[in-house]
Specification:
The N terminus is likely disordered. The protein folds into two domains: 102 residues, Calycin beta-barrel core domain (Lipocalin); 111 residues, Lipocalin (Beta Barrel), CATH 2.40.128. It is 0% helix and 54% strand. The strands form two sheets. It has an eight-stranded antiparallel β-barrel. An eight-stranded antiparallel beta barrel has the order 9-10-11-12-13-14-15-16. It has no helices and 16 strands. With 264 residues, the protein is mostly beta strands.
Length: 264
């Protein structure tokens, strides 16, 4: 069974090989949303889901309206403050193995963008992580309140940014256009490797972006929130470890440095 395309002339690490040390410069988890009960009203299919962040790392959810009405669950989550009233939330649903959920939680604007990453097997037996984006209003004032989603953004296009995740891990990103960017490992276990991937970018607030991509060689995805005002990034990697066959999910963070900007 094929689980990836590997160039035998290069040493591509499985996702599990990247995890050690990647969180050295990660921002700390926060308990600022603990105790909050947030009702998410989605812009598709009329779904409404209630999220109750019971404490600093445990939440419960219940679908109040929509095709999955009546389903519920309890999960372990991690929340990281990215900017004032803006949080990166990460968890895996126990009821859906092979799927991850991230929330760009924008409490100031009372809205959120959710990234659903799902491991899928494609033609030829190859795996990749498929990403879906959902937009919600938070605690709508009325049942017919319109969802105003975070807009897609091209603000990063032309920028070349260095991200230092630890004393040994450093990468540069070159943002090419709306849906393509190139990463290049400057130091760490992938030093010298580079690739161009499919990406998506949403503007959460001035200088704050939700940036995601999925990789072709290693079956994984990345979901990252970038704060260009504070020059920090916060995010996670999720995917299939091709050595162990296990799903890997870990959060990370970095210091960012703008190297140059190309204007077309």
């Amino acid at each position: 069974m094929k689980i990836g395309i590997v160039d035998e002339t290069e040493e591509w690490l499985p996702i599990g090989g990247l995890e050690p040390g990647f969180d050295e410069y990660k921002l700390p988890a926060t308990d600022e949303i603990a105790g909050m009960e947030l009702k998410f009203s989605f812009d598709v299919d009329g779904s409404i889901t209630n999220y109750f962040f019971r404490n600093a790392d445990s939440l419960t959810w219940e679908v109040l309206e929509g095709p999955e009405k009546g389903t519920s669950g309890q999960e372990t989550y991690e929340a990281i403050r990215v900017a004032p009233d803006i949080y990166f939330v990460d968890f895996l649903k126990k009821s859906k193995p092979g799927q991850s959920l991230n929330i760009a939680l924008d409490l100031g604007a009372r809205k959120a963008t959710l990234v659903v990453g799902t491991l899928v097997q494609e033609h030829g037996g190859l795996y990749r992580v498929k990403q879906d984006f959902l937009h919600t209003a938070i605690n709508p004032s009325s049942p017919d309140e319109k969802v105003i989603p975070h807009e897609r953004s091209t603000d990063l296009v032309g920028k070349r940014v260095k991200y230092t995740y630890s004393s040994t891990h450093a990468y540069e990103h070159v943002y090419l256009n709306d849906h393509r960017y190139t990463w290049h490992c400057l130091s760490g276990p992938e030093k010298g490797l580079a690739d161009t991937e499919h990406c998506d970018c949403f503007k959460i607030a001035p200088d704050v972006y939700l940036f995601t991509w999925w990789e072709r060689v290693v079956p994984c995805e990345a979901v990252v929130m970038i704060n260009l005002q504070e020059m920090r990034s916060t995010g996670k990697l999720f995917g299939l470890d091709t050595d162990s066959g296990k799903m890997i999910n870990f959060t990370m963070g970095s210091y960012a440095k703008l190297l140059n900007v190309t204007t077309y």
